[in-house]
Design brief:
- It is built from 4 helices and 10 strands.
- It is α+β, with helices and mostly antiparallel strands and 187 residues long.
- The protein has one domain: Alpha-Beta Complex (tt1808, chain A).
- A 6-stranded mixed β-sheet has the order 3-4-5-6-7-8, sandwiched between helices.
């Protein structure tokens, strides 16, 4: 018997996620391995806080599109199809809305929020993949430690709860306190 994990192509992955039993589940294809994403309530609160802040900043300025949990697959990469938790794409790079399958390009800003089944190493590998394929800024968000790692091709830095997250060169003028990223909006 073999202990090897079966590696899937994007075509096989698309067939897998189209199965009726997978209709309400979230999957990514990472280096040919199908990985299920299982967000928690905490994860969803953080994703919502970030998406709301980004949308509130970008929409009135018509800067671009803010989305969450949209699958992306780079043409020519037959073993990866990623699902950033939140993303922003500049207006000048927006293409018509994809109505079926994965978006064939990556956003300008990608946000990954750690779920209980994610490792820091896996999230950092995602950040490197994103940066290697055109994403300008990646935010890795860790609810368990209330920290955010900001990655660009030039630098990575870690923000603590008392710090302020900013949009850098991708979204000049955007700021959000790290504390508000993790706020439970019960009111």
């Amino acid at each position: 018997m073999s202990d090897r994990i079966k590696l899937y192509t994007v075509e096989e992955f698309e067939q897998f996620i189209d199965l009726p039993e997978n209709a309400d589940r979230l999957f990514e294809l990472i280096d040919g391995e199908i990985v299920e994403t299982v967000p928690t309530e905490e994860h969803s609160v953080v994703v919502g806080n970030i998406a709301f802040a980004l949308r509130t900043f970008t929409q009135p300025r018509k800067l671009g599109r803010v989305l969450s949990e949209v699958r992306h697959q780079i043409p020519g990469d037959n073993h990866n199809s990623y699902l950033p938790d939140v993303e922003f794409t500049h207006a000048n790079r927006i293409k018509p809305i994809v109505t079926q399958g994965a978006v064939p390009h990556l956003p300008d800003l990608a946000v990954e929020v750690k779920s209980p089944n994610d490792s820091r190493a896996a999230l950092r590998r995602k950040a490197l993949y994103y940066l290697d394929n055109g994403v300008q800024v990646v935010w890795l968000v860790y609810p368990d430690t209330r920290q955010i790692e900001v990655w660009t091709n030039e630098v990575s830095k870690t923000l603590a709860i008392e710090d302020t997250l900013d949009g850098g060169a991708v979204l000049p003028g955007f700021t959000m306190s790290v504390d508000s990223v993790f706020a439970d909006q019960t009111n």
